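Hi L.,

You mentioned the student needs an example of a multi-chain input paired with its predicted structure. This one should do, with 430 residues in total across all chains.
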Amino acid sequence: MQSRLSGFYKQSPAERVQTLQEEAGLDAPIGAITEESLARASAEMISENVIGTISYPVSVATNFRVDGVDRLVPMAIEETSVVAAASLGAKLARECGGFETTTTGPYMIAQIQVTDIDAPHHAATAIRGATDELIARANEQDPVLVEHGGGCEDIEVRTLSTREGPMVVVHLLVDVQDAMGGNAVNTMAEAVAPQIADLTGGDIGLRILSNLADSRLVRARCRVPPAALDRSETDLTGPQIRDRIVEAWAFATADPYRAVTHNKGIMNGIDAVTTATMNDWRAIEAGAHGYAATGGITGGDGYGPLTAYEVADNGDLLATIELPVQIGTVGGATQTHPAAEQALAVLDVDSADELARVLGAVGLAQNLAGLRALVSEGIQRGHMKLHAENVAVQAGAPPELVEEIAAQLVAEDSVRQDRAEELLAEYDVK
Ligand code: MEV
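Structure written out for the whole complex:
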């Protein structure tokens, strides 16, 4: 498999499918992604009161090299420029070998809330004393997970002071292996709760996972020589763009209004891969922003960015990302939805851990390319071609004229419907 597919963006969708199968060495047929792949019958197995399905464009981002392996990355997203930016960011990182990643392991947290506690520290100590029994009870719930090397490995006990009085919160730390893990850990939390009630004499409240999955982190990094950042269209040199990227990041470290948008750009890419693989993007979003609220990568006060930009001794731009990624390659819709299966085949990942690493790389590539555009020509120019095509269609251009009219609108720097209508009138097709 190789992810550097020259001219891929110029091909038709059908040609791209062909390229993926031939040049990218993809064995599995990938028709399902490009078709209406989910019959109503199976949609009914995924959700309730189903009346149909909805489609997103599914694209493939190129140029990714993650831990020395080329990856083609399927992305399902409705927003213009995201896939192009991810591919560009990956190309910049590729100059110095691509992305290097690490993960902390697939540990999810399940919380058990205990209320009506008079002596929380006494209760907490009782729970800690029963750690082995609680872990054993939790693991009885999922022998298959345990057989595959996963399962509950530890518990943590916290005491909280709340407006409703003191509470004890028990965390189960569960290695969920290749699953997103929500069902597994929720079942465990419910199973151990009665024992915790007996140990503490308190009342059991919630028994549910935490999406602040800070024991399930991915970290990715790459370096980019300043020459690669050069934008010939602008007056800025590569080193100037590099320094402006670092400044843009510093802005995000100091201002939550900026940091949220900075992180939104990162999540553009991560959500698109999450959607293509039919994972729970809400969990990943919640986890990412929750992690950012604890300071993000810098661990500073308040909400912060999930990436960092620094300059190496030799002048290279050093880019780093860190965020929780609750992603699975087994279970849920990842296996019941045919398009998800196909997306995983394109990614060619063997485990949720590998997929998490790709997601880290995608988030970083997305942010890198976005910042590079923002500090130089701005992002609107990149949006213009597709936007102009939309304007041409809205003005009534027939398919054979859309590209031509759009190109003219861009060339005139007047991407407006009234101008598109004038141009169309000249063709006498309105
Ligand atoms: C747009 O969807 C994402 C950006 O706003 C991200 C950013 O500002 O860094 C371009």
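You could point out the following to them. The chain has a mean pLDDT of 92. The longest strand covers residues 151-162.

Best wishes,
N.
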